[in-house]
Amino acid sequence: xxxxxxxxxxxxxxxxxxxxxxxxxxKLANTYLFYGPRGLGKKxxxxxxxxxxxxxxxxxxxxxxxxxxxxxxxxxxxxxxxxGKDQDLSVENIREFLHKLSLSHVSGEKKxxxxxxxxxxxxxxxNALLKTLExxxxxxxxxxxxxxxxxxxxxxxxxCQLLKFRPLAIDDMESWLExxxxxxxxxxxxxxxxxxxxxxxxxxxxxxxxxxKKSCNFIVKLLSGSTFYFxxxxxxxxxxxxxxxxxxxxYELGDQTKQYLDLFExxxxxxxWAKLDRPVVNxxxxxxxxxxxxxxxxxxLIKNLLEINKAKQKIxxxxxxxxxxxxxxxxxx
Length: 333
Ligand SMILES: [Zn+2]
Known about the structure:
The chain is of the alpha/beta class.
């Protein structure tokens, strides 16, 4: 039966079409593996796949109105089994899940088992899973979801139909962002800084870009203030961080500043672009960037962009993040 599909998902056109056809033609694979970096829409696709599979409507899938749709939304539909959302993928949890799956009857036509975060599975867990992947219980399909497959054993991969999620093209990001009330500069900045990942864009936009702007203002102040000013500002920043995270190890404190480090890198690159008369990425701060760019030399900016990569590595280890930040700013001036 051919249905009309209503999935509010942008990009991944061929992949979605393929999944929808397998539902229409009732030709589900035994096991799918959805993979690709976080924020691309894998979970949303799983959700609409499950809803469309179980929906009772004869025309539109999912209808969103029938009992199955409502129960799938609440994760209480009888033929839907999920693991890995609130539980870790320990061998015990996997065994228990598979046991439950093998004993249960199908109440409708098909059972669907979804395991999230399969990239965190260890070798024992993978071994426990293998037999089920090879021979799933009757009328059962399995979807595994992973951000990356580089650590998954070949024995698991070879038993799955692999579906790779890729970053969205700019056109798709643009049409998706039509749903949000953004200025042209905001929209371009979100597109430039979310790398085709709607999930990242949503995090940026969740408070109307307020947090993003606050972080940008902080970086602008650090970059444009005197040495005395930024040393003081950094000192204040870290005393607040230490107060908020009592007893935190150095790398844990560093972790809290990592997103600022990423943003700092964006600013340095934009300053360089501005000097080279190229379009900047952070269009919301274009005038600040063009103004500031006159006080930095090209050589210093390039040198510091290289330094930042080193700093990102160091921050993962037990190096004082405060000293790291002070050095970064001292050398950029
Ligand atoms: Zn429905």
